[in-house]
Structure formats: structure tokens, C-alpha cells
Amino acid sequence: MAAALLVAVGPADAGPAHTATGHRWITDDQGRALVLTGLNTASSAKSRPDGLPWIEEADVQRESDALGSDFVRFLIQWRNVEPEPGKYDDGYLAQVAERVRWYGARGIHVMLDLHQDVYGPAVKGNGAPVWATESDGLPVAERSQWELKYIEPGTVRAFDHFWGTRPGGRDLRAHYAAAWAQVAERFAADPAVIGYDLMNEPFGGSVQGPAFEAGPLAALYRETIAAIRRVDHDSWIFVEPEAVSANWGLPSGLPYLKDPRGDGARARIAYAPHLYPLPMDLGGGYTGDTKKWVDRTLASWREQTEKTARRLGAPVLVGEYGLDATLPGALDYVAKVRSLTDEMGAGTAYWSNDPGSWAPWDQQLRPTPLLPVLDRPAPKAIAGDPVSYAWDRTSRTLSVTWRPKADVRGNTEVYLPARLFPHGAEVTGGGEAAGFDPKYRTLLVTSGRGGAKEVSVRIRPR
Ligand SMILES: CN(C)c1ccc(C(=O)NC[C@H]2N[C@H](CO)[C@@H](O)[C@@H]2O)cc1
Question: Is the pTM of this model over 0.90?
């Protein structure tokens, strides 16, 4: 039985009111709760001069057919948005818009991620333009592990100047907020764009931990939220914690961030942590003692994620999780993360779609053993307040429970992979099958004959 999504509702001052299930949801224009599931596209955008992913439209079609994705975390680069101070490249945003259209035409919601790793190319990273990189000539040595470039003197100095935690230098955060306003103005009316992930894996340079998150990071988020809301009133704004703590299950010090739209159900600020258990990074794989420590990390990660989400009054979308899927136990880990995030009612974007050992396809775009683990039944939109949903691999049963709401239109939609439901599905419980869209392998399920406070359905292969 699916563990209920009923998370303890935080104190009255925890932020906006919660829905009946003690959890806030991103909803569509019918009021249905969205269960966002997809991939990151694409790591290749970090290094390509054009700042665009490797894909063509046919690759989006293949992802839709192979995985039934309804979400994509789409990487874009500040260096391409604002190649010179105050000068914005509309041609780049047009190329991004073309790719957004590829996803939107297939019912895939797009979150634009202004991505950085190790600040930017001028300090051997990606993201920030050279003109916004002030490393004061300090060195940045190549490192055997790329993550260690974050603590090179030149990189730390570039971050310190960006965050304004070092005297002198320009207010680079104002440029960053203005760049986001430019992107938001371009996509505010685009129905395929669900929102904006303000910064990938923020790093505080010399300032770390809650002092960073509640200080310079929160200040950047507040300035950027205000800049976006001046041009885009409705898109969701996704905020990430500092990378090296929350990713590993440690507490986040991110404070409540007010949305000019209002508090409570008016707010559209979502929490978008990543999940990379440190024992996995250190031990390799999901077996034996490593598995035990990873499971402990998953438990603390869930506890801290839900605590921060309650403080923010925010839905949760896991912007990244993933690993080398050839490691021992890797496929069990991915299945475990999907079950965990189902229990939490959190959306997920697997890292990443780039062909290779982490991906659902190899360099020749042939399916890898990871693909059938990611290609599993799941709700896409739930016609009310979700209470719980879960896929049971053993009994091949997708269970979904929700509380119908008078102001929600339409049916519940679930994705059913062809390999598991070759002859269709049988629906038992309080709802009934109301149609099947073979193009997106989506089953429509009613909320029953009306009046039920809670609807539970079980969906199995015929
Ligand atoms: C020391 N710091 C600041 C640090 C260490 C490790 C990561 C990381 O593994 N991140 C996980 C994945 N996220 C990026 C893209 O966002 C991928 O390249 C990493 O695999 C990030 C930061």
C-alpha cells in the first residue's frame, strides 16, 4: 500500500495554507495536481558555444515514446543570455524557444534552468559570462575531480565578487536578476514553460552553509523573484538550496521567500533540491554497506527536504538525481528514488538525457537497462488533492488515491508503458476508465459517480 503523502503540516506560520493532504502542488489550468516526471536536457549545453543541448526534435519524440515524460529541466547559460553587460542575445532565446516548442508540442512541461557549475568558463566551469567573472587573477588549477575546482582560489574569488561578500567589484547579482527578467519576459506567455530554476547548485564561495543560504543566496532570490514578477505574474519560480549540504541530506537554511503574487495558494515558489547521496559518490553503487548508508542518507534527505518545503510553503521538485547506471545496484537505487519521491508527492528530473552510462540510451541511442526502470507507470495529472500514489512492480499495480475538489475540471491521467500494458488496463475501485490516448499512452480515470470524499483506484494490465 502506498505510504500516504500526509506529511506533518508545519506550524501555522510555516507559510501558506496546505491542501487537505498537508502538501502543496503545482496545478494545471484545470486545477489538477501535476506529477512532473522527466529528464535533464542537457549536460552538453554547458560546453557548447551555442549553449544549446545536443537534441533534435526527433530526440524529443523518442523520449516521449520511450519514457512518457511530462517534464523537462532544460539547461540554459547566462553567458549566452547576456554575452555583454546589459546586452541580451534574442537569437539565443529564439533557439531556446524552438526547442521549448518541441517539448510543448508533446505535452511536456518545460522548466528553464539557468545552469552553472564552478561559476563559468573563465574559471574552468560553465554558466557565467567572462565579463561577469572577477577572479582577481587568482589561480584555478585543473583537478582530477571536477568538483574540486569549486575550491580553487580563483573560483572562490569569482563567487565572492558575485555574491558581493567581498569589498569592491560590481553588483553582479543585479545583472543576474535582470538576465532572468529578460528570459521571463520572453517566455511569460509560452504555455509550455511551467517555470524557472533560478540557479543550479548555488555555491557560496567563502561563505558556506545557512549563513550563505539565509544571506547572499536569499538576497539574490528575492531580487530575482521581484525582477521576474515585474514581467511574469504566473510562472512558477524554483529555488535550490546550497548544493553541498542539501544534496547529501543535510539541513538547508533557506528561509521563506515571499512571492509578490501573495501568500498561501497564491504563491508560486517551489523547492527544487537535488539528490546525490555522498556514500554513493564515495562508495560507488547501491549494494552491501554502501546501500545501508545510502538508505540512511535517503531518509535524512527526505526529512530535511520536507522540513524546508514546509518552511517555504512549497511543492517539491527534485531537479536532479542520477548515477552511473552500470554500477552494482544502480537500477535498484533509481527505482528506490522513484518510490521515495512518489511517497513525497515530489516531481523528478533524472540527470540526464546525455547518451552514455548515466542515461537511458547509449552513444548509439540504443536503450540501456536503465530505460525500463525510468519507463514505469505513473500519474501525470490528478483530478483533486492527491493522497497517495505508488507503482508496485511485483503485483504490477498502479494505485492512486485522491480527494476530488469542486473547482477541479477533467479526469485523472496516468501514463501506462506499452511493454507493461500491451492489451490495455483494468481499473478497479472508486473511479472508472474514461478513455485512452495511444499517442501518449495516457489512461483517463474518472473520480467515480460523484459525492465520494476520497477516490482510490487500482490500475492493472488486462
Ligand atoms: C563542491 N561542490 C560545490 C560540489 C560538489 C559536488 C557537486 C555534484 O556532484 N553535483 C551533482 C551533479 N550536478 C551537476 C549538474 O548540476 C552534475 O554535473 C553533477 O553530477 C556539486 C557541487
Answer: yes
